Every structure is written in structure tokens, then in C-alpha cells.
Amino acid sequence: MAAENRRVHVVDGSRTPFLKAKKGLGPFTGSDLAVAAGRPLIARQPFDATAFDEVIVGAAMPSADEANIGRVVSLRLGCGEKVPAWTVMRNCASGMQAIDSAYLNILAGRSSLVLAGGTDAMSHAPLLFGPAMVNWLADWYGAKSLGQKAATAAKFRLANLAPVIAILRGLTDPVVKLSMGSTAEIVARRFGVTRQMMDEFAVESHRRLAFAQDNGHLTEIEAIYGPDGTVHSTDDGLRRDSAVEKLAKLKPVFDRTYGNVTPGNSSQITDGAAMVILAAEEVVDEYGLTSLGRVVDANWGALDPAEMGLGPVHAITPMLQRHRLGWDDIDCVEVNEAFAAQVLGCLAAWESDAYCREHFGLDRAFGRLDRGKLNIDGGAIALGHPIGASGARVVLHALKVLERTGGRRAVASLCIGGGQGGAMLLERP
């Protein structure tokens, strides 16, 4: 069917609880989590898992034995040997990239029914050997005689064993040499975001998540069962006693002298997965599926990596301009809370005449986003940010909010390490 006649629907979705990374490895790998999210999702459909045209999974840090984790997940879910599966990686927006790739393939007529989403078990991020140890091991395994072995052994130093923490490397931009938290400090300074503002935003994120949990608003979550029989049914990063006074006692992490970004006003390191099913309209009709909403458009923007937190501004603004929409036309906005400073910086950028004129050629500011529309059930500061999964989570939850509130349009967005932003425009039938 021609692309111009196609509509792409998200017909269903589910996610695992987001589990805060604590000491040591979490109970689940990335593929475990994606399978746990996908299995009940597929089980309640009127079609078999083998009916998918493809499976697409976003992941930023799969484990060593999860090469092409998309294929691993597909096979474990029973999609069969004949369903192609692949993996995408766009840092924090990997899960959204998977959904966008599915959307584009359906729009083009290459697929009609796709399972897509994202996963990451950040607690399983590996510890790596540094260059000194790698080179020493190469010499050791290359030594053939006893004398060569002895000479190599004599060169060994205990300092060689110092590990490289992969997650810290992954959260540091290799071009501008800044951690993601440092980029949040830059955004905060640019727009005058104070420590008080960050901490108040963080407390509100926890408050909103608590309200959502207590009122059964997170219907997309599927319980997952640990190997020891433990049932995980809710996001466990929530701090119900969060208060500005408590957060004020935390010390800055990224700029210890002048900074304001702390663990309390930043997203949590978390394990989790989110999966959705996308279908062309003829497939919706064929199986009698109910549409959560339609993917109308997606957009990717780029900017200075040192200000990566402003990525949502650069992704959302051109997309809404393309459709001649403003904030008054949008009922729900999900912006991933990598840092409170980053989200508050985005809000300030949209309200800045100078920023919108410089970057988007507007005569004046794009406008003020009503906080009542933004992350109404809390965000990553409270529930966590498993990098590969968050992009799929914000899309799925935005649709769930529209379903619950009767809204028509939603925007889901994330900032992306490396200086990018991703956004998706969604619409209820």
C-alpha cells in the first residue's frame, strides 16, 4: 500500500517496573527485561508472535552475550526463526529510535506489524580493563617460552587491575570531554536555573509518581518475577518522603565547587524495558485491534554536545512548526527528566525570544508550556532512566495519558548524549 495512504498505529504496549540499580548486579539482564515486557503484551493479542514482520529493540549497553539483542529478544519471545530482528542505538533515545524505525518501515510499506521498544540493565554495565592491562594480557598470551612468560610477569603492576567503569565512560561525551551532569550545569547557568528550582522540580516528580501509583495510573506496567521469587510490580526509585529540605543537604557531584546538580535532582541509574506494537491501519482492521494512538511524525535535532540537555527544544520545535501547532494544541507532553536542570532549561529556552530567534528563526519565543501538561505522572528523576528503554517509555506513557484523560495530541521527547534530541508527535483516534 502506498505510503500516502498509510496510517501507523500503536495498538498496545507494556513495560517492566523500572528497578533502581543498587549494589552489584540487578536480577535481570537487558534481554530478560525486554522479554518480560513483551511476553504478556504478545499473549493478549489475537495474533501469534510469528505474525510480526520484524522486531526492533533499542539498547545502549547490552551485555557481552547479548550481541544484536533485538534478535535475542525476538527468539526468546517465540517470534520464530523467520522474523528478522535488529538493534538500534541512539544513546538515551534508543527506544524511541526503534519506534521511529518501525513507523518509517510501515509507512514505506516494507512492514505492516512490528514489535519495537527498548531495554537496558544499567546495573550490568561491565567493568573493563584499561589499555595497560589489555597490552599486558596480549604480551602474556603471546609469550611462548618459560623465559618470555617470566619476563612478562615481571612487567605486571597492580595498577593494571584498576577497572574502567563502562557506565561512567558511556555517560561522558568523548568529543567535548564532559559528563552528562556537567552539560546540565552548563544549561543551568545559561538560563539561570537555581538549585532551589532544581530541587523543587525533583520533589514534584516524586510527588506526581506517588499520586500515579496510588491511583492506578501506570497501567502499562507488567510485574516481573526475580530468580529468587521476588515480585517486582512497581517502579522502586520513588522517594515518598522527598522534600526540598532533604535534597538541599546533598552535595553537587559534577561541579563540586560551584555546581547545583546532585543525585537528588538527577535521573536514577535503573534497569528496565518498554515494548510497543505498531501496526498499519489494514492490520488494525484485519485483527480488530484497538488503537492507543497514531504516530503522526517524529523529528531528530542536533546541537552543541556541551548543551545536550536542550535537545528536546531542537527536536520538538521544528516538528510542531511543521504541523502549524503550538503548545495550546498539545494535551500531554512527556520530556525525559535526565536532570531537573535540563528540563527547566528547555522550558526557559522555549520562553526566550533570543534563543528562539537564534536557533529557529522565530520573531519571538515559541511560548510557555503549561507545567500541568508536562510529565503529569512524574518522570525519570523519580522512576529512573534505563537509557535504552526511556524513549519507548515516554511514547507509551504519553499515549496512556491521552487514553486516560481523553486528550487528542501528545508529544514525547528526550535529550540525547552527544548533543541531539528526539521527539514524536502522537494523536488519539
What does this structure look like?
With 429 residues, the chain is an alpha+beta fold. It folds into 3 domains: 3-126 and 269-287, Peroxisomal Thiolase, Chain A, domain 1 (3-Layer(aba) Sandwich); 132-165, no CATH class; 180-217 and 248-265 and 297-422, Peroxisomal Thiolase, Chain A, domain 1 (3-Layer(aba) Sandwich). It has 15 helices and 14 strands. It has helices at residues 30-43, 69-76, 94-107, 131-142, 146-154, 166-170, 180-191, 195-214, 244-247, 281-287, 311-322, 340-350, 353-360, 380-383, 387-405, and strands at residues 8-15, 19-20, 54-58, 85-88, 113-121, 127-129, 163-165, 224-225, 231-232, 270-280, 293-302, 332-335, 409-416, 420-427. Strands 1, 2, 3, 4, 5, 10, 11, 12, 13 and 14 form a 10-stranded mixed sheet that branches. A two-stranded antiparallel sheet has the order 6-7. The radius of gyration is 22 Å and the shape is globular. The model has no long low-confidence stretch (mean pLDDT 93).
Descriptors:
14 strands, 3 domains, Peroxisomal Thiolase, Chain A, domain 1, 429 residues, alpha+beta, single chain, 18% strand
